[in-house]
Write a structure and sequence with these properties.
- This is Protein Malvolio isoform X2.
- This protein is mainly α.
- It folds into two domains: 87-510, Amino acid/polyamine transporter I (Up-down Bundle), CATH 1.20.1740; 514-559, no CATH class.
- The chain is 69% helix and 1% strand.
- A two-stranded antiparallel ribbon has the order 1-2.
- α8 packs across α19 (416-437).
- The longest helix is centred in the middle third of the chain and has 37 residues, at 292-328.
- The protein is globular and about 70 Å long.
- It starts with 6 loop residues before the first strand and ends in a 5-residue tail after the last helix.
Length: 594
């Protein structure tokens, strides 16, 4: 394909870049390899096995050259795509359910929590994107080079748990959507089985081109915006109260349940595997990392695109919170039944809500019934379409996150269909049995547990991201400044503390005793120790000489070749200069010792 179509395809699977054998050893690429003319440095193909690993491995979007100096809409359009794919994780069924529950429990009082959680997510996504742009390596690949074998393997396991947990939420959301849209013809367990098939459909779509695949994701986001926006318009919440809840960071007369709901919002919004995903997605653009101005330009446009994408995701989440804050807050199950009396879904409402004076315990299915009873059957089906779009889009991006994680941490490459099957089967087996033998309420309870599980995994993405982007040997002139380091660390500590509070509350709610409690305590101790290990590594990354020169840290924490040593960095400088012609970015090599 010619370069006029907006892409650049590489015939050479390695594209003149050293293979994983070269990267893992102390050998330099041969002079003949270095002198080959390079079209686009395709870092995504440095792993062994196959020439096509990721959705962008054999085509990259070219960045147009413009005569005007300053902002360019054409360049922004060329960089548009990765941020919107990343933002889908902020719109998965787990997030949507957390939104409606927070609205039903606290009305508009904790909208500001959703707003600032999204802002914090943007800050972390910015760091992840910068890592991928500057180094040419995504977060998992960097972990493979910067952590020793055992902690690297533990990190991979933790991220896989987060991915599978997220996938289970997507299975639950999709199954509930199919159950609603089929008017209960397809049972929950049937919807779970259908998700085995539907996740493979997008594998046939990406062969039509990168931009078309990104357009599909954009279409799914549009479907969510239209469907949930429709519910917002027909419910007509008080706009003044919405704005007050969004911008006044206070919660008057809020009990422990509301506080827990606010914690759940934070845990649901910031997904750990999303940092790994975003750092890889930015590699789909043709950025010449040999030119700092091009790297700086890419960072600028990717930040704008991510800001717009997360703003859209925030608006969609806001729609959901406001709809159920307006309609469900303070309502009892009997109040809903009264509204449903003359509606065709009355029997379903009786079975789901029960005729009692208890406050509504909202979930995705009850939310659909409530909308159907209040605004007509069309509102219920439109809600189902929105949930289906959320589940399908999140499934696709979750698959890519799992693929990048496996390729990076294990230096292992699987075909996409095998990766999809592996993740989906692990997610489907427990979900299927729960859907087959249990009730709808049990699926909702599983969602809460999964949010707690994913909250536990957040440090395993946030700490490495801050560590690598704060290391001058890795990032060069694009390293985090002091202010950026302080803000990112403080915000991450706050979010991790909030998530731990949420997890502890969930464990207490399960009333665990005896041997199971002992196992949980042992796990908690090991969990904290591993976090301490990562923090020590992060401090060394930031250039603390006390930690860098400590023998214990050098032996057990840092890589075998001290990647943060100024001496080692200087000794490789001449070699790095000679690699410029090969298209390998100097910033991604400054932590290597060839």
């Amino acid at each position: 394909m010619s370069s006029n179509d907006g892409y650049n395809r590489n015939e050479d699977p390695n594209n003149g870049i050293s293979t994983s054998d070269d990267i893992g050893s102390s050998r330099m690429p041969s002079s003949s390899t270095r002198l080959q003319p390079q079209i686009v440095p395709n870092e995504a193909t440095h792993l062994k096995g196959q020439s096509k690993q990721a959705y962008f491995s054999d085509e990259k979007v070219l960045i147009p050259e413009t005569e005007t100096i300053g902002f360019s809409w054409r360049k922004l359009w060329a960089f548009t795509g990765p941020g919107f794919l990343m933002s889908i994780a902020y719109l998965d069924p787990g997030n949507i359910e957390s939104d409606l529950q927070s609205g039903a429990a606290a009305k508009y009082k904790i909208l500001w929590v959703l707003l600032w959680a999204t802002v914090l997510g943007l800050l972390m996504q910015r760091l992840a994107a910068r890592l991928g742009v500057v180094t040419g390596l995504h977060l998992a690949e960097m972990c493979y080079r910067q952590y020793k074998k055992v902690p690297r393997f533990i990190l991979w396991i933790m991220i896989e748990i987060a991915i599978v947990g997220s996938d289970m939420q997507e299975v639950i959301g999709t199954a509930i959507a199919i159950y609603l849209l089929s008017n209960k013809v397809i049972p929950l367990w049937g919807g779970v089985l259908i998700t085995i098939v539907d996740t493979f459909t997008f594998l046939f779509l990406d062969k039509y081109g990168l931009r078309k695949l990104e357009f599909l994701f954009g279409l799914l986001i549009t479907v969510m915006a239209v469907t949930f926006g429709y519910e917002y318009v027909v419910s007509a919440p008080n706009q003044g109260e919405v704005l007050e809840g969004m911008f006044i960071p206070w919660c008057t007369d809020c009990n422990s349940q509301v506080l827990l709901q606010a914690v759940g919002v934070v845990g649901a919004v910031i997904m750990p595997h999303n940092l790994y995903l975003h750092s890889a997605l930015v590699k789909s653009r043709d950025v010449d990392r040999r030119q700092p101005t091009k790297v700086r330009e890419a960072n600028f446009y990717f930040f704008i695109e991510a800001s717009v994408a997360l703003f859209v995701s925030f608006i969609i989440n806001l729609f959901v919170v406001a709809v159920f804050a307006h309609g469900m807050f303070g309502k009892t199950n009997a109040d809903v039944l009264q509204v449903c009396e003359n509606q065709p879904m009355y029997e379903d409402a009786v079975h789901s809500f029960g005729n009692n004076t208890e406050i509504i315990d909202a979930d995705l299915y009850k939310g659909g019934l409530f909308l159907g009873c209040t605004f007509g059957a069309a509102a219920m089906y439109i809600w189902g379409v929105g949930i289906l779009a959320a589940g399908q889009s999140s499934t696709m991006t979750g698959t890519y996150a799992g693929q990048f994680s496996m390729e990076g941490f294990l230096n292992l490459q699987w075909p996409r269909w095998r990766r999809v099957l592996f993740t989906r089967l692990i997610a489907i087996i427990p979900t299927f049995f729960l859907a087959f033998f249990s009730r709808m309420e049990d699926l909702t309870n599983m969602n809460d547990i999964l949010n707690a599980v994913m909250s536990l995994q957040l440090p395993f993405a946030a700490i490495p991201t801050i560590a690598f982007t704060s290391c001058s040997a890795i990032m060069g002139e694009f390293v985090n400044g002091v202010g950026n380091k302080i803000i990112s660390i403080l915000l991450t500590v706050v979010v991790i503390a909030v998530n731990l509070y949420f997890v502890i509350n969930q464990v207490e709610a399960l009333s665990i005793e005896g041997g199971v409690l002992a196992v949980v305590c042992i796990f908690a101790i090991l969990y904290l120790l591993f976090n301490l290990y990562l923090v020590i590594h992060m401090i060394a990354c930031m250039g603390n000489k006390c930690f860098m020169n400590n023998r214990w840290v050098q032996k057990w924490v840092l890589p075998s070749q001290n990647s943060f040593s100024i001496k080692n960095a200087n000794s490789t400088y001449a070699s790095e200069l000679s690699l410029h012609d090969s298209g390998i970015p100097v910033f991604s090599l400054s932590y290597r010792n060839y």
